[in-house]
Specification:
six-stranded parallel beta sheet, alpha/beta, seven-stranded parallel beta sheet, binds nicotinamide-adenine-dinucleotide
């Protein structure tokens, strides 16, 4: 993609300042404003405003709801908005790659289903007609991650509003500015299109305390968490309807029947996407001995840097991990070039992933690192590779990939790992609709079972019965 970075930067700085000043965000001196466009001083206010908006949305027609979804798509896809949110997302969080944020935000805007997802069931017979419809839950509290701040807001907003709900976001504090910018852009566009105000709201200063207020507020009927294990566990113990989209550690298996050249390219493409932060991205490889050397050779031809010295591998691991063995925040979503540079290894930006051969119990295999470091484990055969992949996935049942032409082994791995997404012979992102069939989502709800969420995931099924009439057979 051809982008003049300096022009975009100037554009974003200018636009962010304008919108921020309009919304009292990080703007000195604070201008008196008429409207807040969805950003409230307190979480209570954000929820109350959302509850008022939801009552209005409840009485909107389905055509109006779909029109609001279309406004969200159009607003996000407007060139300057897309560039602004993508650039600010990288700048504020220090995570990921501008060009890939553009792809992910575009995917969220284009491939999140709208109201067409709400398919009515009908039963007819001698006792009449019964319909079962997907109906709104009400006000939804949605907690979003640093790794996909804008993608999740776009995706959740479309799905939730299509379902007749309003949404109060609690973004990660490290993604406050970009979340505010997006929420205000969307609310402004929705209001201008005649939608009720405050379909999407949030709080001025996101924090754990504010997330707790959101979860406990009696007017919030459903809580959706997209993030790591701690927040997923927390929402599942609120006593309310909860959707938990948790962590993964997606393994890849490559066997001797695979197209090894294609597998190498697909794995590097998937692993390096947005510097490896997507929860679905390739995090470790199990390769059968027979093809392992050739796989590594082909990966190197596709932008992998191989680290061979065990001391250097240990140094790398220590550099990017904290005392608890978790990834250091300052390295999450950084490029391979940046990480290598911190070790005094200078490479150009054609290097996208750092690879190394290690054993199956290595820290880099076991831990979800969210940076373009890809450990490779050599196995005796495909059965051993599948077994090791099963262990490395930790029962998250999130995402796994396999490169093979052996249908029996492909089925074996899919059955054993039971992941929400299983991608065969493609990069991981094919699983969220980029180069694969099916809709996209940025809230993949493994723990609570909704899977690839869409409008219907955020709805209640309700039944309406007309006895002894209206059937026409
Ligand atoms: P995180 O868990 O640190 O934060 C996610 C959100 O939860 C943030 O808004 C954060 O402020 C909030 N939060 C975290 N702990 C909390 C607590 N105890 N109380 C209240 N709020 C809390 O995750 P992150 O680093 O922002 O995102 C990366 C993680 O999210 C990875 O584990 C990744 O796999 C996962 N993820 C999963 C999906 C999915 O669809 N399943 C999508 C994106 C990210």
């Amino acid at each position: 993609m051809e982008i003049d970075e300096s022009v975009i930067e100037r554009l974003v700085r200018q636009a962010v300042k304008e919108v921020a000043c309009d919304n009292k965000i990080d703007c000195e001196p604070v201008k008196k404003v008429e409207k807040n466009y969805g950003i409230y001083k307190t979480m209570e206010e954000a929820v109350e405003a959302s509850a008022v908006a939801q009552k209005k949305l409840l009485f909107s027609t389905m055509a109006q709801r779909q029109a609001y979804v279309d406004v969200i798509r159009k607003t996000v896809l407007k060139k300057e908005n897309m560039e602004m949110i993508s650039l600010l997302s990288v700048e504020e969080t220090g995570i990921g790659k501008y060009e890939h944020k553009i792809i992910k935000n575009t995917l969220a805007a284009n491939k999140t289903p709208g109201t067409e997802d709400l398919v009515t069931e009908a039963k007819t017979g001698d006792h009449g007609l019964t319909v079962i419809e997907y109906c709104p839950f009400g006000v939804i509290g949605a907690i979003t991650p640093t790794t996909n701040p804008t993608e999740t807001i776009i995706n959740n907003s479309i799905s939730m509003i299509a379902g007749g709900n309003t949404v109060v976001f609690s973004p990660h504090p490290r993604a406050t500015k970009v979340s505010h910018l997006l929420v205000s852009l969307l609310n402004k566009a929705l209001e201008e299109a005649g939608a009720p105000s405050d379909l999407i709201t949030t709080v001025e200063a996101p924090s754990i305390e504010n997330t707790n207020i959101l979860m406990e507020h009696p007017k919030v009927r459903m809580i959706v968490a997209t993030g790591g294990p701690s927040i997923v566990k927390k929402v599942m113990s609120t006593g309310k309807k909860a959707i938990g989209a948790g962590a993964g550690n997606p393994p890849v298996v490559v066997d001797e029947t695979a197209d090894v050249e294609k597998a190498a390219k697909d794995i590097i493409d998937g692993c390096s996407f947005d510097n490896n932060v997507p929860c679905i991205a390739e995090k470790e490889v199990f390769a059968v001995d027979q093809i392992c050397d050739y796989l590594i050779h082909c990966m190197k031809q596709n932008g992998a840097y191989e680290m061979k010295d065990p001391e250097m591998i240990a140094k790398l691991d220590a550099l990017v991990s904290n005392e608890k063995g978790k990834p250091k925040v300052s390295f999450v979503g950084k490029s391979a070039q940046y990480i290598l540079g911190q070790l005094g290894i200078n490479v150009d930006d054609s290097i996208r992933v750092i690879i190394m051969e290690v054993n199956k119990d290595h820290h880099l295999v076991v831990e979800e690192m969210m940076m373009p470091i890809l450990p490779i484990v050599r196995t005796e055969d495909v059965d051993q590779a599948i077994e090791y992949a099963y262990v490395a996935e930790h029962g998250n049942r999130h995402t796994a990939m396999m490169h093979s032409r052996n249908v029996e082994k492909l089925s074996k791995m899919a059955k054993l790992l039971e992941t929400t997404i299983f991608v065969k012979n493609a990069p991981s992102y094919a699983g969220i609709g980029a180069g694969g069939e099916g809709h996209t989502t940025f809230t993949i709800a493994g723990p609570t079972g909704e899977g690839l969420t869409s409008a219907r995931s955020f709805c209640r099924k309700r039944k309406c019965v007309m006895a002894d009439a209206l059937h026409i057979r």
